[in-house]
Amino acid sequence: MLKLPGLIDLHVHVREPGATHKEDWDTATSAALAGGFTTIFAMPNTMPPIFDRDTLDLGLASAKEKARCDYAQFLGAGPNNANWDVHPDLPPRAAGLKMYLDSTFGELRLDDMTLWMQHFATFPKHLPIVLHAESRTMAAGILFAEIYDRPIHIAHLSLREEILIIKAAKERGIKVTCEVAPHHLFINKDLTGFQNLSGLSVGHQEVRPRLTSQKDVDALWDNLDIIDCFATDHAPHTIEEKDSDNPLPGFPGLETALPLFLTAADRGRLTVDDIVEKMYTNPKKIFNLPEQPGTWIEVDENAQYEIRGAEHFSRCGWTPFEGYQVKGRVTRVVLRGKDVYKDGKVLAEKGFGQNIRD
Ligand code: NCD
Ligand code: ZN
Question: Where in the sequence is the domain holding 32, given as residue range(s)?
């Protein structure tokens, strides 16, 4: 039995409010516990998006009622809320600010760099700004970190050029950190080793950032020390939505991340210490999270099994890793002294989860 700290997932699409047919605070936090996470950060691209007092109150009210693990909610950067100095009480209630600088699922997208300037100038410096910014947009985001002399965190980077630029920026002392999603480390766009998707429609492969070439995947593994965090970008859509003519981008990930990384550790691709660093220590440091006393997870490192989406707590009912042979199963999760997950069952009540920014 392996005992690890309660893991932190910085990037979860909980889907509430507005799309609870895909997921809600109950199913997302159940999936989190089953995956070994005791804290999740919820993304703001909901319907409506979470970007001001009313929508933050709305999102946090659902979380308070239903969450079974601890959480924080991101605010989204939009065209009409680049004035955080006018509402100084709002940012400290949030995980941080999420800025969508490249296109993805949802309405939050900022093209106008003068709006980036206002968000960078007014969002408090001690709270992280997280950027969805790919390729050259990412380079522009790093320049903003330098100009405004404040930390930024790059979400789900996926390309060789991106990890190399981040490496260079870090060497120069620019305050940039980054996360990588499991699917960009374990799947490439040619689906090598991903044959299990063959039974599913091509829409199931849609994700933002897109799946990349093996050259990009290799560059991420070769620069593991530059990757601060692993974050799932858990982005559930239903099978019908993935099958449609206009398939929605996103993969579920909460229940598969740790088994995939433990399997990679078993094969010598990284160490268990690397996993703890990137799924607990660094997220905690970057986002300045409090201790969770009396909190740990237990893992049976020798349990071998095949991943089955139908057995998962996520409402979406599928996983891109269907049929993957993995080694390592979460058997028990203890959160603040209470057994919240044990032997396949979620034991935490709805509402047991706490807002870590309260
Ligand atoms: C995310 C979603 O569905 O909300 N989709 C995705 O492919 N990652 C949006 C996002 O994180 O960009
Ligand atoms: Zn996302």
Answer: 2-346
Q: Residues 36, 258: contact at Cβ < 8 Å?
A: yes
357 located within any domain: no
Q: Is residue 355 part of a domain?
A: no
Side-chain half-sphere exposure of 145, counting CA atoms within 13 A: 25
CB of 217 within 8 A of CB of 209? Answer: no
Question: Is the shortest distance between the CB of 232 and ligand 1 below 6 Å?
Answer: no
Mean pLDDT by 10 residues, the chain (358 residues): 98 98 98 98 97 98 98 96 96 98 80 95 95 97 97 98 98 98 95 66 92 97 98 98 95 98 98 98 97 97 95 96 94 98 98 98
Does residue 177 contact residue 155 with C-beta atoms inside 8 Å?
no
Cα 182 to ligand 2 centre (Å): 12
Locate the ligand 1 atom nearest the alpha carbon of residue 45 and give its number.
4
Closest among 99, 90, 101, 173 to 124, alpha carbons compared: 90
The number of the ligand 1 atom at minimal distance from the alpha carbon of 100 is 12
Residues within 5 Å of ion ligand 2, judged at the Cβ atom: 233
- Residue 158 maps to which CATH number? 3.20.20.140
What's the CA-to-centroid distance between 233 and ligand 2, angstroms?
5
**352 found inside a domain:** no
Nearest ligand 1 atom, CA 132:
12
Token pair recorded at residue 80: 């009409």
pTM for the complete prediction?
0.97
Instruction: Kindly state the DSSP code that residue 22 receives in the 8-state scheme.
Output: T
Q: Using the mean position of ligand 1's atoms as its centre, give its distance from the Cα of residue 28 in Å.
A: 15
